[in-house]
Design brief:
Elements: E1 8-12, H1 18-24, E2 29-33, H2 43-56, E3 63-66, H3 73-81, E4 89-95, E5 112-116, H4 119-123, H5 125-128, E6 134-139, H6 141-148, H7 158-171, E7 174-177, H8 186-199, E8 203-204, H9 212-219, H10 223-237, E9 244-246, E10 249-251, H11 253-265
Parallel strand pairs: 1-2, 2-3, 3-4, 4-5, 5-6, 6-7, 7-8
Antiparallel strand pairs: 9-10
Helix pairs in contact: 8-9, 10-11
């Protein structure tokens, strides 16, 4: 699995002057949004403005571009406008994706993060996540709950989260948990971030700068966890490859794999 942002922050594509401020934030990635943040009558202008911006400016943090749905006229224009590789460009984030047929016109070299927002997308994840272009899977909880007729509580969306994590793991891609929509409820964000990390998500969306510190703190390994991971990896590398004990803990290959993921989260190369 390649490095990925732990806490990508949304920036509306019709407010490009916000990018510089977002770059100065603690967010380690950006999502430049052409979909929900942009009114219909401004989508063409926002897209053209973003094309011009990227032709003259470099974004210092890894970033996605969230398109409109690829089945829509605006989405097709979005996807054809941003196929060129730019520095720090992580690829397109495609909303309401439901079938591989929607990706057929995209080049194989273009990376895609699937934004899962419908029941059909949840059921089709086995085929969607295996596509060579897919580098991540993200949960769009607000749209999915609207489709299901549910609320956005943890229990209501647990099945969807579990499906996403299963297919992200099978295909070795990152996973991004749904945004926490109550901006002022920092205790609620803390609890949901803790649960998402415990379940296996590698990242969580931020929709406001005041969410960044809490998300990063919950997803980043502690100093103690980093040292433990290094010790376990080193001990296993010096063993015969079978199960060993390290500080009273049984360690085998799956445990070492988890330790390597922790080091990657903290920005370390686990193979050094």
């Amino acid at each position: 699995m390649k490095p990925f942002p732990l806490c990508p922050l949304f920036v509306p594509a019709n407010k490009l002057d916000w990018i510089e401020k977002a770059e100065r934030s603690e967010a380690d990635g950006l999502i430049i949004d052409l979909e929900d943040s942009v009114p219909l009558e401004e989508k063409g202008k926002a897209r053209d403005g973003l094309v011009e911006y990227l032709s003259s400016e470099e974004i210092s943090k890894p970033f996605f571009i969230r398109t409109n749905p690829l089945t829509s006229r605006e989405g097709r224009k979005d996807s054809s406008s941003f196929g060129e590789k730019k520095k720090n460009f992580l690829g397109l984030m495609t909303p309401k994706i439901e079938s591989l047929d929607e990706l057929k016109d995209l080049p194989d070299t273009l990376k895609i993060t699937l934004l899962v927002e419908t029941p059909l997308a949840i059921e089709n994840l086995a085929s969607l996540a295996s596509d060579i272009r897919v580098n991540g899977i993200a949960l769009g909880g607000a749209d999915l709950s609207a489709e299901l007729g549910s609320d956005m509580s943890w229990d209501s969306l647990l099945y969807a989260r579990s499906r996403i994590l299963s297919y992200a793991s099978i295909n070795g891609v990152f996973s991004i948990d749904s945004p926490f929509m109550q901006i002022d409820d920092l205790e609620g964000l803390e609890e949901e971030s803790r649960r998402a990390k415990s379940l296996g998500f590698t990242s969580k969306f931020a929709i406001h700068p005041n969410q960044i510190e809490i998300i990063r703190r919950n997803f980043l390994p502690t100093d103690q966890e980093i040292e433990e991971a290094k010790e376990i990896i080193k001990a296993f590398a010096n063993s015969d490859g079978g199960a060993i004990a390290v500080n009273g803990k049984m360690v085998d290959e799956p445990v070492v794999k988890l330790m390597k993921k922790k080091l990657m989260l903290a920005g370390f190369n686990p193979d050094n």
